[in-house]
Amino acid sequence: MLRNNEPGRGVWFTPGSRILYGETIEETVKRTLTEETGLTPIKIVRKGVMTHFWPETHTVTVFYRVDVEDDQVKMNEEHSAYKWISEATNDLHPFLKRMIEESKVFKKKYL
To answer: For residue range 18-60, what is the model confidence (pLDDT) as tens digits?
Structure first.
């Protein structure tokens, strides 16, 4: 998704959020996916953890492969565009490319 807010304004990145108090990481994944894309997850598989140093902040990203019921995205105000990908392309943010490559998220068998 093309981000409208910091960190990463103007770059292609995945939906993401902070973990709310009392929420599990998996609950955060489900909430964030629904809030930012309108999609309903049907399968969530943790793929890895990565530290990102942005110019103004330091984040720890837990990333997942998520299978969804359908692909009808309804973006919220945090993003201005979206695209479906099947490989890491050159226009993605370097952190996102690294997550894709390290997680092997596009392999057919990912469990």
So the answer is: 899 999 999 999 999 999 999 999 999 998 888 888 788 888 8
The pTM (predicted TM-score) of the whole model is 0.78
Sorted by where each begins, the domain ranges of the chain are 2-103
Q: Which two tokens stand for residue 88?
A: 């890491």
Domain 2-103 -> CATH class: alpha beta
**Digit-coded pLDDT (tens) for 78-104:** 999 998 888 888 888 888 888 888 887
Q: Of 57, 53, 33, give the one whose Cα is nearest residue 43.
A: 33
CA separation for the pair 111, 101 (Å, rounded): 16
Give the separation between CA 27 and CA 105, rounded to whole angstroms.
Answer: 20
